[in-house]
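Chapter summary example: a protein plus pyrrole-2-carboxylate.
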Amino acid sequence: MKTAPPIRVIDSHTAGEPTRTVIEGFPDLLGGEVSGQRRVLQERFDAYRSATLNEPRGHDVLVGALLCPSPRSDCLTGVIFFNNTGYLGMCGHGLIGVVATLRHLGRLEPGRCRIDTPVGVVEATLEADGRVALTNVEAYRAARDVVVDVPGHGPVRGDVAWGGNWFFLVRDHGEVLDLSRVARLSDLTQRIRAAVNAQGYPDVDHVELFGPPGSPENHSRNFVMCPGGAYDRSPCGTGTSAKLACLAADGALDEGVVWRQEGILGTHFEAWYRWADRTRGTIHPHLSGRAFIMAEAVLWQEVDDPFAWGIRAEAEAVEPR
Ligand code: PYC
């Protein structure tokens, strides 16, 4: 016997990073602000997140996107992003995946739309060739040159910035950002995150390392560690927004000039910014990329399946050594 109703999802990937968009089967979250709906999902129905993203129906790399109503009449939809261990604010690659999914479903034609997220409204433009350009929520740098002592590694200097999620952005890490080294990079970034959290920035849940690009057409390569212990296969849209805020604050990139951010797979996002408020240091980040539809699925849960709601081990926190 199956529990009802089944969960209908569409899987896409954006620059290599997967998004599982939930189009049916989650409970009614009672409407209202998307941030409030996220709270209801988290507090009362978190098992749905786990069933959809955790093994055996999902895996750690997946980011989920639940379509939900928005109280704003100018928004096409609301969306709540989540992952293997919890909830995100915004998600750049995920929003591009949602736009591609809405097109796939016939709910969106090329042109502009607005999408409501728990941290603000994002404007997206779907091009005829499938590319998606978005204007993210405002980004800013909260702290510059923060030095944290990472046990087993030594001091690391970085910036704390908001790009729709909280990031610690590091340049002087001494590591080679290559796919062959992701185990080492994953370990280091999780230890950096534990140190940053312990040293006064508990909200930072993403760590971003920067280095030289693999392709001369790009400006930089990154490696991004996400909250649940999986690294971002894409260049990370919210992480790129945080990077733009730091570049803007340093006077290292002018308004309107394109920054090509390469991710660890060698894929890239094009990005640029406009000042929102120069004195406060806030910017409007713009990003573009492309998502590809991969699968449509119906997730069933049999009532006597011990893993109907996912294998729910929380990712082990990496303790400072
Ligand atoms: O693209 O913003 C992003 C993102 C956040 C976590 C994974 N991807």
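Key point: The first strand starts at residue 7 and ends at 14.
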